Model the fold of this input.
Amino acid sequence: MTAIELKALTKRYGDRTAVDGLTCVIEPGRVTGFLGPNGAGKSTTMRMILGLDRPDGGGAYVGGRRYTDLPDPMREVGALLDARAVHGTRTARDHLLWLAHAAGLPESRADEVLRQVGLESVARRRVRTFSLGMSQRLGIAAALLGDPAVLLFDEPVNGLDPEGVKWIRELMRGLAGEGRAVLVSSHLMSEMALTADHLLIIGRGRLIADVAMADFVRRSSGVLVRADDPEPLVKRLTGEGAEVRTVADGGLVVGGMEAGEIGRAALAAGVALTELTPQRTSLEEAYMELTRDSLEFKAVAV
Amino acid sequence: MRARALRAEWTKFRTVPSNLVTLAAAVVLMVGPGTLTAYRAGEGHQGAGVFDAANISLYGGFLFAQIVVGSLGVMVASSEYATGMIRTSLTAVPRRARLLAAKVTMFGAVALAAGQVASFASFLLGQVVIAAAGAPAATLGQPGVLRAVAGMGVVWALVGLVGVALGCLLRETMIATTVLVAINFIIPIIGPRLLPEAAGAAVTTYWPIAAGLRITTTVADPARLGPWAGLGLLAAFTALLLAAAFALFRTRDA
Done:
């Protein structure tokens, strides 16, 4: 199974460092959400993976090789960078046809992927008459053409209607389920929460978090507990496998346990609780918290 | 592998309908105005010192056609930047030199084929109207005539490739087309009238397109380059521009 490896990947534009020593592995068999505010370096990273931009340091490898050294790139990696980057007077099928010729694939593949993305009825229409959603589908068809083990999608749900968003989500889940490595960028946590198994969060070109989605969820929620005598309670809770943090004013934040379980644990430990409040930090808030220092443009109150 | 890239470039070219229309327009522009100017020249042939019937049937139309062929060459490269297609093209064919070589080969062959059709049609029709105007017409069997007519087709291909090189180097269609028109039209045609005599003569003799068109003459002119030397100069100029395009294309971010 093919993975993408980034090793100290760096890109500078003048004195601005767009991607700053990025090191991580995008594993096969799961959807990896590539998350970060606008301008964080997501697209630049994807372009470097595809050999479109030249890194100033480090490298990006697909199955151990640079993209430009792959003998059959389209059969190994499929990418959707910009759905509008097509020649408008070509028909959808012709767009896939030249790609199939470039990859040495039979023309029947073009028809297969058109069917797969639901564009067969408009296969012979010029691309410039397409809505953004249809263009996204065509871009995905192009990515799938070579039946690649690695897929890159740059903001694929931008401008899609809810039905299209759901379709892409299920498609990506399906592709990962078949054992492919799927890297999908977004600046919206809410979208990733429904799609990704794993998160790579970047800000200002740096890796902020490389974390399983489940861990991120667990980390970002908890129950605020106050008790007259916290010590035996902490012992009891940690003994039952919960994560307990002490916050500034002496309260406890308990992770990995529901409020009801905590209440029963307190009863068993003979400790009276003075507060038991489930905290629903949304994933969006947790993500904002992580990336707050790395926003390129921030609204300032005046 | 290279054959795949070449085939993909041809598919790209032929699936944009305006490309084939433009190519046909270039042939029509060569043959139409070419035939008209040939007839006019035939009518006035007694006043002219030397009457090069082959060259006359080729040159008049080429002035129009070359702008179209060159612009089409520009578009083959620059439209990829305008649409963003270049990134798709480079993910399909990530080796830059291979992609550009495929583009150059494809368009060179297309322009050469269209150029030969245009040149032979222009010559044959031109000779008919020259004869009709009462002037001595040329035949392909005469010395140098076949070389002149086939050479015209080669000049088409070279002009087209200058367009591809400029499109790739400058990336902006408008800028590249303007430079192309300056190089192939304004400087060689208007330049000699504006420049001091010596500089004007140098442009007439050594400017690439002016030199290259010597291949289409059948009457020697001691003041100008010979047919093959002239074509060689245009070919060398084209090769230089292409080399610059390859060098830049290999290192530039897409």
